[in-house]
């Protein structure tokens, strides 16, 4: 499944353009692409697209490239943005984001 099967291309582009270097805010980004209004089931489908290795978690290494999961020309997150994103979503402190943690962050 492609991200464009779940979200509108123009909303993805607008959100990517809104967050230039060092400004990424995952909650605002997810709202801009329309994920906040999605059902929990569809948010979990987005998670599965972003979980590149299929481990059931988005690890820090995958998180750095999360914007590329939305669009091929998405930029890499900086180390600071990656750590802030992980800190915002990783509620159990295991160093990775599970599907329920991801859904909770989107709908927070």
TrEMBL record:
SUPFAM superfamilies: EF-hand. The keyword Nucleotidyltransferase does not apply. GO terms for cellular component: cytoplasm. GO terms for molecular function: calcium ion binding. Transmembrane segments: none annotated. InterPro entries: EF-hand-dom_pair (IPR011992), EF_Hand_1_Ca_BS (IPR018247), EF_hand_dom (IPR002048), Parvalbumin (IPR008080). The keyword Repeat applies. Residues 38-73, 77-108 form the EF-hand domain. Pfam families: EF-hand_7 (PF13499). Keywords: Calcium, Metal-binding, Muscle protein, Repeat. Ca(2+) binds at residues 51, 53, 55, 57, 62, 90, 92, 94, 96, 101. It comes from the Eukaryota. In muscle, parvalbumin is thought to be involved in relaxation after contraction. It binds two calcium ions. Belongs to the parvalbumin family. This is Parvalbumin.
